[in-house]
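Expect chain and fold; see below:
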Amino acid sequence: MFKTFINAFKVKDLRKKMLITLLLLFIYRVGCWLTVPGISPGALQDAASGTDGITFLSLMNSISGGALANASFFALGVSPYISASIIIQLLAVAIPSLERISKQGEEGRKKINFYTRIAALVLATAQAIGIVVSYANTEGFIDTRMLGEGTPIWISCAFIALVLIAGAMFTVWLGERITDLGVGNGLSLLIFVGILSTACTGLYTAAQGVATDIDYLWTILIFLLAVIVIFALIVFIDNSERKVPVQYAKQVKGRKMYGGQTTNIPIKVNATGVIPIIFANAIVSFPQMLISIFWPNTAFADWWTMYMGTSSWVYIVATALLILFFAYFYSQITFNPEDVSKQIQQNGGFIPGIRAGKQTAEYLGKISSRLTLFGAIFLAFIALVPSLVFNALATTSLDSTLINAFSVTGLMILVSVALELDKQLDAQLLMRNYRGFLK
C-alpha cells in the first residue's frame, strides 16, 4: 500500500489530486476543533465519550473524529448524509419510480444525489434539534458570553441548531469536492480521517497514563496486539471471495470471431461491508437517544439502561439478529442473481455444468446465500465478541478510552476505506501505464 502511494505521488496529475485531497481534509479537521459560538467547550464531552458503551452519540463522535465532543461546527459530521443515502437506496428498491430513476444513467444519478441531499438536510435538522433540545436545560451548555447576556434561550438554541445544520451540509460539500477534484470517495475519506484521529487521541491519552503507572504499558501493548489480530482477520475476510467460472461460446460476427474465453464472477464473502453493523447499532441505539431527549434522569431511563443497555444480553442478541437480517437484506440489493444470469446468457456465456437461465440464477443465488450467511456470522462475531472481551478486561478509565477509540466498527471502516483507496490508486496508475505504452 505504501509503495502504491509513493508511485502515485511521482505522477504529476495524481500528486496534484493527492495534495488537493490533503488540503480539503485539513480544512475538515480544523472545523472539527472550532467550537460553535454559544456552546460551552466540553459541554457534550460526557455524552459523546461513550463511557456506557457504543451509543448513538458516541458512534457519531467516533466517525467525526471527536467533533461532537468538541461541540464544533462539524459536530454532526457526515452521519446525516450517510443515513440519507442508505434510506434512499432502500427506497429505490421498494418504490418503482425511484428504481427507474436510478437506472437512467448520469441524469438519474444526479436526481438521486439531489434527493439524498434533501434527505440529509432533513436528518441533519432533526439531529441538531434533538441535541439542542436534549441539552439546552443542562447547566453549562449555553455560553451566554458568546451571544450576549440578555439573549433569550430559544434564540441561542435556534442559532446553535442552524450552525450545526450548516456545518453538516458543508461537510457533505467538502466530501463531494474531494470526490470530484481529489482521489477516492470523499465522504469515506472524511470518516476515515475522523476515526483515525479518534484512535490517535485515544492512544495519546493512554500513553499519558504510562507516566503515572509504568505497568500500564503492558496493557497498551496487549491491547494493540489484539487490534492487529482483528485488523488481519478483517483484511482476510474482506479480500475473500468465491470465483464462479463462466465459459463464453465462440461467436462469428462478420469476419471476426468473438468469445471462446473463460472468466469468472467474483462473489465476495463480506459483500455488504460494515453497513449491517452501522444499521444495527443505529436501530438499537435509537430508543436510547429518544429516552435521553424526552425522559432523561427518570426511573424508566434507569430501567432501560440496566436491562436494555449496551451491557445487557437483550442488547447483544438484538444486535446480532439485526446484523444477520441487514446482511441478507443488503446482499439482495447489491447482488441480483437473476440480472447476472440474464447478462451471462445474453453474452453467450454459461457456467460449466449449469444450464443457462433459471438454473444459473438459482445456482448463483445458492452460492450468494451461503457466502452471505458466513459473512453475516463473521460480522456479528467481530462486532460483539471483541467488544465484550475488551469491556470485560477494562478495569480503569484508560482502558475504556482505548476501547472507545478502537471500536470494531471503526476498525472495519478503516480497513475498507484504506483497501478501496489503494485499489483506486492502482487502477489509475495502471491506466496511465497503458496510455504511455500506446504512445
In short: The chain has 18 helices and five strands. The two ends are 28 Å apart (CA to CA). The longest helix spans residues 358-393.
